[in-house]
Amino acid sequence: MINKPARQHGFSLLELMTTITVAAILLVITVSSFRDVIHRNQVSSAGNEILASLSYARTEAITRGQLVSLCPSADGASCTAGGQAFGPGWLVYTDPAGVVSANKAYDSTKSILLRATTARTGVSIQSRSAEIVTFGQQGQLKSATTSPTLSIVACYSDSTSSGNSSSTTAVPGVELDVNGSGSVQTKTLAAGASCTPS
Questions:
Q1: What residues are paired with 184 via a beta bridge?
Q2: Are the C-beta atoms of 103 and 134 separated by less than 8 Å?
């Protein structure tokens, strides 16, 4: 009886290296795409948070029949003077009955309705104006200036290197425009669009 040599089971070194190379390429593509998905969700979530707060402020102004304002706040206790950065947080508050002028910063005579004080990581939220957002008794935007629209922009912020905010094809920014009637339109920014106040 002739013994046949046993057939070897397993992978050759060449097959193993080819498999590892293909797996590494697929992993790089997947991780990069997954990172963009996370950044898109962060920007979308920040835009939805500020949209919800704007809608809440407008609804409260109509319900209460008095001015309700929203301002950026770094500490959750006061408005940031001349602030345009909503990233650290914001306040929604009412003015006392009888106040009719807009752009009044929060003080102890006002009631805080909502505090949003959690810093948003990886997202920059900027207003294009240092004006406090104030809604009148009919839900209209009460502006201290003649600007008919107030814009707030949320973009991905590269906090690990340059700190620049950007709207890219992979991670587009979101712009919220509050018009004179108080309604808010949301639009996706084009790649390369400005994310900083102008």
A1: 178
A2: yes
Residue 58, both tokens: 């407008």
pTM reported for the whole predicted model: 0.79
How far apart (Å, rounded) are the C-alpha atoms in residues 94 and 71?
11
- The CA angle 47-197-88, to the nearest 5 degrees, is 50
Domains of the chain: 14-188 (3.55.40.10)
Question: Per residue, what are the HEC states of the chain?
Answer: CCCCCCCCCCCCHHHHHHHHHHHHHHHHHHHHHHHHHHHHHHHHHHHHHHHHHHHHHHHHHHHHCCCEEEEECCCCCCCCCCCCECCCCEEEEECCCCCCCCCCCCCCCCEEEEEECCCCCCEEEEECCCCCEEECCCCCECCCCCCCCEEEEEEEECCCCCCCEECCCCCCCEEEEECCCCCEEEEECCCCCCCCCC
pLDDT tens-digit series, residues 25-82 = 998 888 878 888 888 899 999 999 999 999 999 999 999 988 899 999 888 888 888 7
